[in-house]
Amino acid sequence: MSALLALTDRAVQAVRSIVLSSEATPATGELRLAADRSGDEPNFQLSVVTLPAEDDAVIEEEGVRVFLDPAAASLLEDKVLDASVEQNQVAFTIADQVEE
Predict the structure, then answer these.
(1) 29 and 48 in contact (C-beta within 8 Å)?
(2) What are phi and psi for residue 90, nearest 5 degrees?
């Protein structure tokens, strides 16, 4: 069985701060990742939403929930989402999960 996307502690903090700073739904918002495969490399669109779409995968880590559309879920299987913050800009990076 393949593992869903994992989040590092830094990614959890970044998701939390993005949701809390969202003007739309700070109390009930969650982060949603949708994949766009129109180019050579997939692009991921981030949005803050209140509920997952019917076919979204839901990842919960340390009280933070991230919703993945089906394309993003398949692209991000066995991956780790990490984040870094520089000059108030969050940059997410994706790496392969390493089995321990």
Answers:
(1) yes
(2) -95, 130
Q: Which of 3, 6, 31, 1 is nearest to 94 (CA)?
A: 6
pLDDT tens-digit readout, 20-75: 887 765 567 889 999 987 778 778 899 999 899 999 999 999 989 999 999 999 99
DSSP 8-state secondary structure symbol assigned to residue 84: E
User: How far apart (Å, rounded) are the C-alpha atoms in residues 91 and 100?
Assistant: 26
What distances in angstroms separate CA 29 from CA 11, 44, 86, 100, one per listed residue? 16, 18, 23, 33
Query: Hey, is 20 helix, strand or coil?
Result: helix
Residue 11 neighbours by CB distance under 10 Å:
25
For residue 79, give both structure tokens: 């991956």
- What sign has the CA pseudo-torsion 12, 15, 19, 20? positive
Place of tokens 């990076």: 93
Q: Structure pTM?
A: 0.85
